[in-house]
Specification:
This protein is α+β, with helices and mostly antiparallel strands. It has one domain. 35% of the residues lie in helices and 30% in strands. It is elongated and about 50 Å long. The protein starts with 6 loop residues before the first strand and ends in a 7-residue tail after the last helix. This is Prophage protein.
């Protein structure tokens, strides 16, 4: 029996000014129709993270807000839309 599950995947990379290096990698999944959602962050460059905590944390908060909006959009869908 084939069971297909759909999800929305969000990915992000945070870079700081004057650097082309990724400081933090972000990944989130929102399962359509309910199920397990996840949000993850991986610090790729701890020195750049420490030197730019304030701006990096603002970017993480922005990504998290996008995740919440995707969850909220799912919650407002009617069964016919899923």
């Amino acid at each position: 029996m084939l069971e297909i599950k759909r999800s929305i995947t969000l990915t992000g990379e945070i870079k700081v000014p004057d650097s082309d290096r990724t400081v933090v990698y972000l990944n989130a999944t929102v399962a359509e129709g309910g199920g397990e959602d996840s949000i993850n962050q991986n610090i790729q460059d701890s020195k750049l993270y420490e030197a730019n905590k304030e701006v990096v944390r603002r970017e993480i908060a922005e990504f998290t807000q996008q995740f919440y909006e995707a969850q909220d959009a799912r919650a407002t869908e009617t069964p016919e839309q899923q």
